């Protein structure tokens, strides 16, 4: 499986350099006094929590009518893992600094990992048999392997998914420093930014026909990078029925609506190895480019716990209009089709993601410039 090192190696180095340069340039003060003010109002946030990601199920082995060769697929066996039910972890952070003119610049990022393993079976019965053919097209694989009536193919699927993102944004405050009123309106802001996202998937399917007569191991890497720009609108709000309670407990809630257009770049590589005499060993690679929309809602409730520290609970809900969905080869017997897929290709589907985090935000600078609690 991939592990934490690979995502670091695949991280676009030019993006890192550009973001670091931009953040340093925005934060560069004009004088020593300005430097003290900027640092005193800058914040660093770190957090961690849970993550879920609703990816398409993986569809592999097939069931066909027993009548004759050339019959079409009547059903497919999936990993049945309901990947959206799996709970992983995420870590995240941000650096925010004022730019002057009621603007702030922020560099933020997250990394999430979700793993799943599942075992499924396909049992041949009278009238319908289970087959395994080459998930990757192979001219030497002229036939498919069928399980006799009453026997089963057992498939164990292991899936390891990394999800990550880095964003640089400029935020314009819409209600800054209002005074002379009985109650100031809730703070609001608009933000524009550039974003990189990634969903990197590693998968292994190990299919056997007990007691050891057949074994097929299929491994896959399916990596998608998203490059885009986004706009966001957000601010503070009071829960409708809990404003008094929020005031007594010193809580403040906020929301953020975000949407952007992205260029999605997907790379696929698959390797299949088999112990049968069907010569199912093969490799494959493919790529695909799409235009995608990524949008979401963020809700956060925070409490100040000192002159420079704030603790918050944050939930992020996201929608991806495009994620890859593999269509595995259906051809056998020199080109006969059991299903619609001629070869193994990259299809598409959509997905939802959710992350919940406990976050700590710290103001920088000496106590002398901290706002009173």
Features:
about 375 residues, 4-stranded antiparallel beta sheet, mainly beta, about 10% helix
How would you summarize what this structure contains?
The chain contains four helices and 16 strands. The protein has helices at residues 3-10, 13-27, 32-41, 243-249, and strands spanning 43-54, 59-65, 75-78, 88-100, 103-123, 128-132, 145-146, 152-173, 188-209, 214-237, 251-274, 282-304, 309-327, 331-332, 336-337, 345-363.
Helix/strand/pairing category: mainly beta
Q: Main beta sheet: strand number and arrangement?
A: 10 strands, antiparallel, barrel
**Straight-line distance between termini:** 48 Å
Helical residue percent band = 10-25%
Shape: elongated
Order of helices and strands: HHHEEEEEEEEEEHEEEEEE
Mean pLDDT across all amino acids: 79
Topology, number of strands: 16
β content, as a range? over 45%
Question: Any overview of this molecule?
Answer:
This protein is mainly β and 373 residues long. It has one domain (3-177, 184-369). Helices cover 11% and strands 59% of the residues. The protein has helices at residues 3-10, 13-27, 32-41, 243-249; strands spanning 43-54, 59-65, 75-78, 88-100, 103-123, 128-132, 145-146, 152-173, 188-209, 214-237, 251-274, 282-304, 309-327, 331-332, 336-337, 345-363. It has a 10-stranded antiparallel beta barrel. Strands 3-2-6-7 form a 4-stranded antiparallel sheet, with no helix packed on it. The chain has a two-stranded antiparallel sheet with strand order 14-15. A hairpin with a 2-residue loop joins strand 4 (88-100) and strand 5 (103-123). The longest helix is centred in the first third of the chain and has 15 residues, at 13-27. It is elongated and about 75 Å long. Mean pLDDT is 79; it is low at 1-5, 21-37, 66-70 and 179-183.
């Amino acid at each position: 499986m991939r592990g934490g090192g690979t995502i670091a190696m695949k991280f676009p180095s030019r993006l890192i350099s550009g973001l670091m340069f931009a953040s340093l340039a925005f934060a560069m003060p004009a004088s020593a006094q300005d430097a003290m003010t900027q640092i005193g109002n800058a914040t660093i946030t770190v957090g961690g929590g849970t993550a879920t990601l609703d990816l398409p199920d993986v569809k592999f082995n097939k069931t066909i009518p027993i009548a004759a060769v050339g019959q079409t697929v009547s059903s497919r066996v999936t990993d049945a893992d309901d990947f959206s039910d799996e709970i992983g972890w995420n870590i995240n952070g941000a650096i925010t600094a004022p730019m002057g003119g009621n603007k702030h610049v922020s560099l933020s990022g997250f990394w999430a990992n979700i793993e799943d393993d599942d075992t499924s079976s396909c049992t041949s019965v009278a009238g319908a048999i289970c087959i395994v053919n080459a998930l990757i097209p192979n001219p030497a694989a002229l036939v498919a392997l069928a399980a006799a009536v009453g026997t089963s193919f057992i498939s164990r699927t292991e899936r390891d998914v990394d999800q990550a993102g880095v964003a640089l944004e400029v935020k314009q405050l819409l209600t800054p420093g209002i005074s002379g009123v009985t109650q100031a309106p809730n703070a609001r802001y608009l933000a524009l930014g550039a974003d990189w996202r990634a969903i990197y998937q590693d998968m292994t399917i190990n299919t056997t026909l007990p007691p050891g007569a057949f074994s097929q191991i299929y491994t896959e890497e399916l990596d998608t990078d998203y490059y885009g720009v986004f706009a966001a609108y957000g601010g503070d709000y009071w829960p409708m029925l809990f404003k008094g309670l929020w005031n007594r407990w010193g809580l403040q809630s906020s929301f953020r609506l975000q949407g952007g257009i992205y260029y999605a770049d997907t790379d696929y590589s698959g390797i299949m190895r088999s112990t049968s005499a069907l010569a199912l060993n093969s490799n494959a690679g493919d790529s695909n480019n799409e235009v995608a929309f990524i949008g979401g809602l963020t809700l956060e409730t925070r409490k100040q716990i000192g002159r420079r520290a704030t603790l918050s609970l944050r939930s992020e809900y996201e929608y991806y209009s495009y994620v890859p969905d593999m269509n595995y080869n259906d051809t056998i017997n020199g080109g006969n089709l059991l299903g619609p897929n001629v070869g193994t290709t990259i299809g598409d589907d959509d997905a939802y993601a959710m992350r919940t985090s406990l976050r700590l935000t710290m103001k920088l600078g000496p106590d002398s410039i901290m706002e009173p609690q």
